[in-house]
Amino acid sequence: MSDPAIFIMHIAYKIGVYGIAALSLNIEYGYTGLSNFGKAAFLMIGAYTAAIALENGLHPVIAIILSVIISGVIGLLASAFTLKFREDYLAITLLAFAEITRLIIRSFDDSAKALTRLITGMENYVNIFGGVHGKVVRSFISIIGDYRLYNVAQLCLAYGFLIFSYIFVKLLLDSPYGRVLRAIREDELASQTLGKETWRYKLQVIILGSMLAGLAGALIAQFEGYISPESFQPHLTFAIWMMVILGGVGNNLGVILGAALVESIEAAALFIKGFLGYLPLDPINIQWIFVGISIIVIVAFKPKGLVEERPIKTPAMEVAIAGSTRD
Amino acid sequence: MRKRNSLAVSLAVFLICTVVAVVVAGIAGYYIGHDGGYRSGYNAGYNEGYGKGRDEGLVAGAQAAYREGYNTGYSTGYRHGFSNGTLNVAKALYMGLKDRILREIVQVSAPNLPSKIKVGCLMALTGELGPMGVEIAKGAQLAVALVNRLGGVAGRPVELILEDTGTDPSKALTACKKLVEVDGVKVIVGPMASGEVMAVGSYVNERKVVLVSPSATSPYITLNFPDDYVFRVVGSDTAQAKALVKLALDAGCRKIATLVMDNPYGVGIEDVVSSLIKDKIVLKVRYDPKKMDFRTELTQIKGAGVDGVIYVGYYEDGRVMFRQALELGLDNIKWFAAEGVYGEPMLVVPESAEFMYRAVLGTRPLPPLISFYDEFLEEYEAVFGAKPAAPYIEYCFDATLMLLEAIAKAGVYDGAAIKEKLMEISSSFLGASGYKAFDSVGDQLMQIYSTWKVVKDDGKYKIIDVGAITP
Amino acid sequence: MYTLNLPQIFFNSIITGSIFMLAAIGLSLSYSLSRFPNFAHAEYITLGGYIGFLLFEQLNMHLYIAFTASFLVSGLLSLLSYTVLFKPLQDRGAPMVYLMVASIGLGITIRHIIQQIWGGSPLTIRAVWPRWDIGPLTISGLYLYLIATVISTSIVLHLLLASTIIGKCIRAVSDNIELASSVGVNVDNVSRFVWFVGGGLAGLSGFFMVAIANAIPLLGWRLLIPAFAVTVLGGVGSFYGALIAAYTLGFAENISVIGLTALGLPTDLKMLVFFITIVVVLLAKPEGIIASIRRGLRV
Fold first, then answer.
1. CA-to-CA dists, residue B172 to B127, B194, B212, B271, B288, angstroms
2. Is A295–C108 a contact, with Cβ atoms under 8 angstroms apart?
3. What CATH number has the domain spanning C6-297?
4. What confidence category does residue C249 fall into, taking pLDDT thresholds of 50, 70 and 90?
């Protein structure tokens, strides 16, 4: 009855979904240099949108589309005002934004109740976000018979979206559009002098990143079956940053590898802690100390990540490379 | 002249005769007429009276008989039930915890069980609830160690596989899948927090794994997973909230403030309390338990002029809350606290202990008078060398024993069979935390709450039970 | 419906503002000197709190020793992180985002080392402070210590910045780093001094938070968003701005708590105050409202 494959598929599913989240951060930070420290908020918005859509009997496809659109809209709202900030201000603002989003979703139902009481004087029962109790989410795929088959279907769903996102991001970033983004990252002022409205590009990137993050959030929610505001604390954002930095800033395959590494380390901790049990160490602390030190070490010694970003192959580049080898 | 005389005499006689006849006839007629009227009236009255009387008499008679029978039956039944119950308890107690384990778990014949019985245990060993979870897990460890020492389940050793949830619903699900799919367990004790139970609920239902939580109290668990594989051995927040309300109303409070943590436990109780006594609540405060400076919240409560505060918190914020409440002079209000602040750690900080001594009356799920708590305590101290340092340890112990007994009774290591037997044995299970009968949705049928307060004895504070409440 | 105890709320706000001020001064000054927001600043606060707990509660030392030790240890940690990590990174020309990411990495490391040593559950100082009731006001001895610390810190910093050479150097570096170094200011020494003092003050705020409430590993992280709000509202690098902003936000927080409880909402939402402050100020006057007002008034 027990089936280790299901556990492996669980981990694989999470790798796929966090791979999408890492890709979304990669186009923002890795390609455009936007330090988005509010990633958890967009995952959360996607997750809650999907949960509410499914609860109201909407079709899963519509639920996914809604998650993506609403996350994109919130991304637009959050960044429309803040994108003109310097990168440090942007980081602070988005970090605060994520915490605030969490608090608002957490207390939305009660706020709505209190406001209706103030305005209409009537008590009514509001249950949209589930408040502190969280929400039980229906799965996109209904479970028919074989549980393993169900997991395979889920896995196909996640990796389908991952491959789709990867190809999309790859095509986009290898296009002239992507080169503008890199130019913004390297030198915003220079890109502006070249006549590029960098602000517009940045906004588009944040919207795109938020949409991908919303997709990842929806996929997590429907697979795990339960979401609560406590699952979207800042350490989720840091975990995604860890994936991007570990895997290689600006390298799409690299960040997916980073996601695989971070998730596998967490899963492996379940098995190796039996051996660590004799040491008076808390595995969670060790894991996070390791994460922290790796961030410092990578930033200090290998700021391009484990897998470095490769130059894009363009005709001009080929000529340049050919020229340099001939000499 | 003679003729005239005779006519007169005859006339007189006639007249007299007539008068006499008339009188006699009248008298006779009266008597006859009276008699007939009387008789017919009597008859009619009798008949009617008899009919009515008979009807009413029948009803009244039946009632009287019913009443008498009821009373007799009730008292007899009660007496019999009581003596039977006492006898059972006396038997159970006489038999002792170990004998019960021997008879119900160890010395059963179950040839179809695997050679090793695996029991999964999901606890928050790290994270927010980590310090509490490490202690609660000892309940399961103790139960497994005890059963193994006595011979195992039907002679097979029991293996406890403990996994950490990190107080994170998502990690709880990963750990749960690891237990079920990799280790192949069919029964799980835990997890602790209601959010974690909600996260693994639909999965264990799907995989037919029996889950018994020792400490998740949220009513939302029942709402989301009504008839299924999720059980709990502790009463839900609804019952606790009713107990708190009863306590406050008995103390004569008219204006009440609620002061709860902004988490499922606090908000769950607040919701029930405010639906029960809506008109008496003048102020509702939900505080962030991590903020650690509650002086403005407390100033608000002081300003609201309430005579009672219903408080839900844990040790960490409770210590700060009581210390700051003492500081702001809120000890002249009656405080009613849920079980989260019951325990020695609250008395570590002198100011918090002093405040509890002055103002706080609390409730907690009662370790009942009739239970194996003493034997549990003895075992616990023998194994761990210390007294239990957290609430719910005995609940975790009972949850584990119930699962093992259900496995022994089922005779096969299969979720569906174990679930059936778990429902069945629960009605007669007496453990360290009392009777553990489940209702049809897997919640506790009956939860008694005891009220406690802090007393100062010779300069030292201690907590004593002062009564019991059945909500 | 109920009466507000205004003097008490005023006093609570002063306390909150004082904590914010101690926590934010170092962040603001190091931000302006080294030109990146140091997220690891939160952990200097936490470490100060735990050191205070260790000496005062676990080792039963005198309050003043614990107090001084919190300042010194946090200050040294801050100095160390600057000289060992941030300075070399800056010398290699690392962009601001890298410095931010590195500071987050450092913060995560320190926080979990603290959690490994002292554990994740809250620790409480058992001391009983003397207490006075003055009319509607209740004041405990601890708060007098806090207020005394804040007043003396403010006076010392004011004198330091206004009338000593170091102060002038700090202001010069903060205004224009290239110009300052070209006129012979030793930017390095000035930075080290500021990082040390700023970290030390953060440690003191942690010490007082632990004494008021509990020691938890997330102590500093919870003060970080308010501290950023103070920094932004007061103007990055402005000592007087931070002073005024800290108390403004202290009042704003307590008033929002009153409003939220009156509406029956959870008091967690008071964080909205800080968020709105950050966004509005950055949109309207990124150099800080209070700093701009001061410049306008030429104070």
1. 12, 11, 14, 27, 24
2. yes
3. 1.10.3470
4. very high
